[in-house]
Amino acid sequence: MNIKELLADGLLELVNRQKLESISIKQLIEYTHISKQTFYNHFLDKNDLIQYIYLTRIIPDFNDPQKQISFVQAMENVFDRMKQYHVFMKQALMMEGQNCLKDFIFQHCQEFDLQFHQQRYGAKPMPDTLRFATEYHAIASSSMSISWVLSDMPVSSREMATLITQLRSVGMEQLFAEGETKGNPYQ
Question: How many angstroms separate the Cα of 5 from the Cα of each of 85, 91, 156, 162, 183?
Fold first, then answer.
């Protein structure tokens, strides 16, 4: 029995019945028949569980180094999963405060992108201009993704993934010109 998955499933089921913000740990452990101690052995708090759901249900393609998939396809998969879990995502993104999902997405995306670009750039440190572009695109991509969810997904997953990938591509050939891997890392 995977306790983390049981708790994630329970929270996702409860969010279809009531507002995510109002769901308490007590309600969740009563619903899942998991002890309070067991919950806290696996998660720091409800926001930690929300982040776990995001990592495992929404963006697993980006967290699996073995997965051979293009960036644009991984993005489209993420947007498809955001649609699948739209009620959860929208409510989670509207929650504010310490360890909120919105802040987690910004931080995770920035860390992922910096690592993604550094791996493709090679052993020597990436130049400041590439680092700046990487951080800029991480924040812009996160903002647009959050805006897309909160505005009830007015365009298709494919269109969002394509637009974000195309915009991330601008100037990358030049920024990667001195790296071990030449060219645009998004193509």
Answer: 15, 20, 29, 31, 40
Question: Which of 141, 184, 133 has its CA nearest to residue 161?
Answer: 141
- Residue 162: partners with Cβ closer than 8 Å, 6 or more residues away: 72, 76
Q: What is the pTM of this model?
A: 0.94
Q: What is the pLDDT of residue 65?
A: 66
**Amino acid in the structure at residue 82:** M
pLDDT, tens digit (0-9, with 9 covering 90-100), for 20-65: 999 999 999 999 999 999 999 999 999 999 999 999 999 998 766 6
Between CA 30 and CA 71 the distance in angstroms is 40
